[in-house]
Design goal:
Length: 292
């Protein structure tokens, strides 16, 4: 049994086809099929149920999948620890962000890629509950988001940035000239809000829910860029972090009185796990940026 065979097996299971997995692994379909056949022969089991239109795992395949992922992760961790010991920065780094934090971390991602091209960086944009699941399952090295309630026993949390939620609208909106808004000002406005799973909306939802009978919602969208596109072409308003429009012309962010207290975003990692040098380096770049 070879680690590459397990990698091919996991790729096929996740992609749902040999052809897609072969493209993902940069190997021909015939070669990846041959390696899976060798793995099945060695284990004495069938791992996939194949048909002309469908591919699924057998019972043995389902049992092997988490074990194969653990084995691959352990091998990669061995390589990364040894590289760290030699003072090299390479290997893999996976980070996860809530959608609203993307503008804060974007420049750090660019700096990191330029400075450390040998690190394979994976960036995931998800809601915070989804990121926490990925962190628990060791699919992320760092997750960034607002306070995680009731998770303090298994995560380390480092504060990395603060920001405020504002009413975001195009600069020709009738309310755009105001220096500050109250929730009463939003009662008859058409709102486009981030999808409910985005944690930093909780405070806004608390106030908005009290006036739900008179609020004119448009929709919920889980993409900050899509929300900005809608706002730019309409008189809708959203409630978003103040920094999200820094590089966007034609929009403005007005402070909301009831949301004047800043939110703190944290970097989460699993307690008691090895801290990769790449993860520590990324955090250092991020914290330097937040100070500057």
């Amino acid at each position: 049994m070879e680690i590459r065979q397990l990698s091919y097996f996991v790729a096929i299971a996740e992609c749902g086809s040999f052809s897609e997995a072969s493209r993902r692994c940069f190997i021909s379909q015939s070669a990846i099929s041959q390696q899976i056949k060798l793995l099945e022969d060695e284990l004495g089991v069938t791992l996939f149920i194949r048909s002309s239109h469908h591919l699924s795992l057998t019972e043995c395949g389902r049992a092997l999948l988490p074990l194969a992922k653990d084995a691959i992760r352990d091998v990669n961790l061995c390589k990364e620890r040894l590289a760290d010991f030699r003072g090299m920065l390479n290997g893999q780094l996976s980070i996860g962000l809530t959608y609203s934090l993307e503008p804060y971390v974007r420049d750090v991602i660019v700096q990191f890629i330029k400075r450390y091209p040998k690190v394979q960086l994976s960036v995931w944009y998800k809601t915070l509950p989804e990121l926490i699941v990925m962190l628990r399952e060791h699919d992320l090295d760092i997750a960034f988001g607002i306070k995680v309630e009731g998770e303090e026993d298994w995560v380390d949390a480092v504060p990395v940035m603060q920001y405020r939620l504002c009413a975001v609208m195009r600069d020709t909106h009738p309310l755009a000239s105001r220096e500050e808004l109250f929730f009463d000002d939003l009662r008859m406005q058409r709102l486009v809000l981030p999808e409910a799973g985005i944690r930093d909306q909780n405070a806004a939802e608390h106030y908005l829910s009290e006036k739900a009978s008179v609020l004119q919602y448009c929709t919920y969208i889980n993409s900050a860029s899509a929300i900005l596109s809608v706002i730019r072409e309409s008189n809708c308003i959203s409630i978003l972090p103040e920094h999200i429009i820094e590089e966007t012309n034609g929009l403005c962010a007005i402070p909301i009185h009831e949301l004047s207290d800043p939110f703190t975003s944290y970097a989460y990692s699993l307690k008691g796990t090895y801290r990769k040098k790449a993860a520590l380096t990324f955090m250092k770049l991020l914290l330097q940026g937040s100070v500057n």
